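dude i think i finally got it to work??
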Amino acid sequence: MALQPSRRTVVLVLVTAALTLAVAGSVNALPGFSDHTGPAELDVTEFERTGTGCGVVGSTVPDSLYERHGSIRVADTDAALSVRVERVSPPGADLSRFRVHVESVHEGPVESTCEHPAVGYRVALDPSGGSPAGLLPDAHGVQVLYVENGEFAGCSAAFTGIDPASTNGCGESFGEEPRTWANATVTATPTA
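look at this
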């Protein structure tokens, strides 16, 4: 018995929908489709002192995902500042997580006359790597945690298709990841 054109169309649509749902999970493995990830690397492109003072050295320039204007407590206002970036998510993860460490070092006598000397700074970061977007949308994102002299200082994040509740937030607990991933080497943190 031959199907009528209208029934044939309905059956074809239902079969197509069922096949689409059946392969939706594996379509990202096909060439040309997406397994989009966040960036693989985050490099410091600019780092500068923006001022010194007592207490917090503020900035009127807003931060962005890859740029931060901060103020770090120091022993003296002539303290040297350094910055380094550490990846804390495994390569290829949908959510790329990084820690940006800003440290101050002061050698010699303290000459500051204020109780809480601080240095303002600006750091600019450049993301690279990761897999590109494909034809279908895919969950991906990046979180950047800022740590000043070993203390949580702030966080920025951007993601698409990832449940914010599943990202472990963007707070102090993010800085306590048990592993550091760099060049495919895992370093476990000591447990007490």
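The beta strands are 41-54, 67-73, 80-87, 95-105, 117-128, 140-148, 151-160, 179-182, 185-188.
im so relieved honestly
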